[in-house]
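Propose amino acids for all 274 sites.
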């Protein structure tokens, strides 16, 4: 994308990951501004990436043509309201990675009629293997959609959803999803230890197996169900394990868990956007 001046409000882990990914993609460091109250975090970013830093959010907003909101959802409202006059004057593209805050709430706090892209990234973005769902409001142009996508694509895969409510499903699937896989790895590690392996061996095998399965799935043209069938020999060990999972209701349990996560995401949007 064209190297617009890019501003980040917040210098936490996700913002730092995005900035590192952009710098690795040859985004000019002198075209990036970052603000935060944590001066140590700013100093670290300046040293590692060479970006402009400040403790004043207004300074970033005054420079940026694209403004990334990367603060905790609980403090987003006062942050945006403090910047409203500047936002109305500058009219930047606003990209929010704050979980649970709707574009309508951000637009209201900013004074209205803003171009806003709301994003739901996940923590693997920190190792450049993230998955992000994006949704644009009606004020976002095609060029701005491309700009927002390029920012998030610096740390992994991006997908657009047509309705903002669908971001609740994205939250339940990929936003919270890493924890589901960590839980599975944790359970496999404990089972391996119970079967006689030492913990280090059990952990390493579970981690590498998860990595390998994920890589096979994303690089294959086949659906995961077909990949599963291919490694499930009739009468073999995998078939016995899969049958046990199915008897225990794994699929409906996953569906129930994701439904609960999606409902909670919707509740948080109502609470935080009030």
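Proposal:
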């Amino acid at each position: 994308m064209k190297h617009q001046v890019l501003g980040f409000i917040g210098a936490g882990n996700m913002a730092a990951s995005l900035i590192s990914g952009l710098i690795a993609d040859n985004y000019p460091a002198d075209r990036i501004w970052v603000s935060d109250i944590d001066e140590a975090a700013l100093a670290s970013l300046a040293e590692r990436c060479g970006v402009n830093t400040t403790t004043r959010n207004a300074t970033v907003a005054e420079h940026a043509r694209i403004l990334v909101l990367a603060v905790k959802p609980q403090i987003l409202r006062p942050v945006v309201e403090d910047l409203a006059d500047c936002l109305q004057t500058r009219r930047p593209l606003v990209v929010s990675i704050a979980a649970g805050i709707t574009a309508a709430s951000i637009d209201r706090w900013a004074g209205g009629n803003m171009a806003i892209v709301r994003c739901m990234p996940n923590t693997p973005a920190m190792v450049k293997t993230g998955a992000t769902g994006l949704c644009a409001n009606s004020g976002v142009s095609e060029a701005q959609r491309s700009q927002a996508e390029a920012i998030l694509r610096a740390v992994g895969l991006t997908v657009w959803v047509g309705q903002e409510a669908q971001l609740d499903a994205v939250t339940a699937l990929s936003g919270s999803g890493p924890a589901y896989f960590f839980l599975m790895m944790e359970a496999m590690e404990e089972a391996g230890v119970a079967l006689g392996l030492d913990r280090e061996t059990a952990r390493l095998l579970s981690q590498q197996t998860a990595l390998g399965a994920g890589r096979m799935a994303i690089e294959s043209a086949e659906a995961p169900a077909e990949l599963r069938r291919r490694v499930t020999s009739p009468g073999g060990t995998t078939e016995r394990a899969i049958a046990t999972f199915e008897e225990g209701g794994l699929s409906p349990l996953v569906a129930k868990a994701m439904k609960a996560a999606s409902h909670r995401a919707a509740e948080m949007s109502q609470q935080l956007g009030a």
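Residues 250-273 form the longest helix (24 residues). The first strand starts at residue 6 and ends at 9.
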